Amino acid sequence: MNAIASALRELWGLFVEDGSFTIGILVCIALAIYVIPRVITSADWRGPLLFAALAIVLVENVYRSARR
């Protein structure tokens, strides 16, 4: 069982370096799927809002990483 957990951690580490960055991206995608279509009826703004949210998450992550 310990070997399986270790293998899963290694697999996770291959794809995810920063957990908070990954969670931020997933939250942005969830908002784009469930919240934005209900709040904003015009489809013209959905893409730019998703881009802006992802850019904010990226800038915050870079800023936080630079402070370390």
Briefly characterize the structure.
This protein is an all-alpha fold and 68 residues long.
Spatial gap, N to C terminus: 35 Å
Q: Please give the radius of gyration in angstroms.
A: 16 Å
Structural class: mainly alpha
SSE order, one letter for each helix or strand: HHH
Q: Which band does the percent of strand residues land in? A: under 5%
Low-confidence stretches: none
Describe the main β-sheet briefly: none
Kindly report the average pLDDT value: 91
Number of helices: 3
Shape verdict: flat
Strands, total number: 0
Number of structurally distinct domains = 1
Helix content: over 70%
Task: Give an overview in words.
The protein is mainly alpha-helical. It has one domain. The chain is 84% helix and 0% strand. It has three helices and no strands. The longest helix is centred in the C-terminal third of the chain and has 22 residues. It is flat and about 50 Å long. The model has no long low-confidence stretch (mean pLDDT 91).
